[in-house]
Design goal:
Layout: H1 3-32, E1 40-44, H2 50-63, E2 68-72, H3 81-89, E3 94-97, H4 103-106, H5 109-127, E4 134-138, H6 140-145, H7 151-159, E5 166-170, H8 176-181, E6 184-187
The structure holds adenosine-5'-triphosphate and magnesium ion.
Magnesium ion binds near residues 50, 51, 139 and 170.
């Protein structure tokens, strides 16, 4: 047996031993996670990928025939690919948008608050419906941050949702109470973004 062969055999043995240990750890963790219930997921941070991650989970849920509700706060002035797709191809998805655009476009606090409340009125029945498996609250963190919606009201409704229902909240910030309530919190970090290098937002990638 050459030295090279021995090294390869040794590498393979060590890899197998390491994978066996890893499998034991993963199996034990899977065994320990025996609490079956819906979860609250907060996708936050300054980087790109929060809403698109949420829509990835919409696709997953639809794959299993789950009942999905999507409510987009802020968005709605400009069309997005997800809106076009859901409206044209997923008639079962309960889809609503606030449709007023960003606060720096509306520049009118009272009308923003009225729009936020009207949009919240679409959310409340979803969060009370045991038939809804997944509810996406896209960009709702800004409604809490600007105090357009009462934080306690929003958090209570999420906390008191049906036990099997999962809720995904996206947007920068959101506050410590929301972080506390969420079961999973992921922060997307802005390392760099094409827009800052002067590259225009792209159809099918950015909207
Ligand atoms: P996406 O919808 O692409 O997942 P997001 O939900 O994480 O993005 P938002 O703050 O909702 O981020 O902004 C949506 C739009 O802003 C997208 O067009 C996205 O490419 C762009 N965007 C997101 N993060 C940044 C950033 N750090 N700098 C510049 N533009 C950004
Ligand atoms: Mg977003």
């Amino acid at each position: 047996m050459s030295d090279d062969t021995r090294t390869d055999a040794d590498k393979a043995r060590r890899h197998k031993a390491s994978m066996q240990k890893q499998k034991a750890r993963v199996d034990a963790a899977v065994e320990a996670a025996d609490n079956e219930r819906g979860v609250v997921i907060l996708l936050t941070g300054n980087g790109k990928g929060k809403s698109s991650s949420a829509f990835g989970m919409v696709m997953r849920a639809l794959g299993y025939g789950h009942s999905v509700g999507v409510v987009q706060f802020i968005k709605g002035v400009q069309l997005s690919g997800e809106e076009i797709y859901l409206r044209d191809h997923c008639p079962t998805v309960d889809f609503h948008q606030m449709g007023t655009g960003f606060t720096w476009n509306t520049q009118d606090r009272d009308s923003d608050i009225a729009a936020a409340e009207a949009t919240w009125a679409k959310v409340e029945p979803m969060l009370a419906d045991p038939g809804k498996d997944l509810v996406i609250l896209d960009e709702i963190t800004y409604m809490i941050g600007y105090k357009y919606l009462d934080e306690a009201k929003v958090l209570d409704a999420i906390a008191n949702r049906p036990v099997e229902q999962s809720v995904i909240v996206t947007g920068r910030g959101g506050g410590s109470a929301l972080r506390e309530l969420a079961d999973t919190v992921s922060e997307v970090k802005d390392i760099k973004h094409a827009f800052k290098a002067g590259i225009k937002a792209r159809k099918g990638v950015d909207y």
